Amino acid sequence: MKKVSTWLLVCWLAAACSQKPEPINYGHDGCHYCKMTIMDNRYGAEIVTEKFKVLKFDAVECMLNYQKAAEANHDNSLLLVTDFQNPGKLIDATAAYYLRSASLPSPMGMYLTSFASHQAVMQTMDQHSGDKYSWQDLTKEFPNFPTLNDGGQ
């Protein structure tokens, strides 16, 4: 019986100590970087650290600003963003596609929108124009984006 209890305790601890995202409670949770209340469920981002701490952000630009300001190494962290086409759904930030379009203002004003698929970002670009980024492109160019002009780019 003692072996079974020990085994169950080990399994429970292993399950409790995993990198699991938490849903963003829109209208209630505050941004870890800018401290604003996270309101728009089409945007939002989250870092789950290697120590299982969950940091929530108002938009992908807040998460990127936090990483830059903290000079944080999040190589072993889970980086998540909200899929624009599925409000409230968190997806892997490193596999997501990003659109920067003047006709899609994000909460923090950098016009960054996240998508789960290449097809989704291309369809949205057909409607709104703009510039497409991968996570690698985004992290290299952020925050030195060119100014958006009235042409929607």
From TrEMBL:
What is the protein name given in its UniProt record?
Answer: Nitrous oxide reductase accessory protein NosL
Sorted alphabetically, which SUPFAM superfamilies does this protein's record hold?
A: NosL/MerB-like
* Organism this protein belongs to: Agaribacillus aureus
InterPro entries under this entry? N2O_reductase_NosL
| UniProt superkingdom | Bacteria
Q: Which residues cross the membrane?
A: none
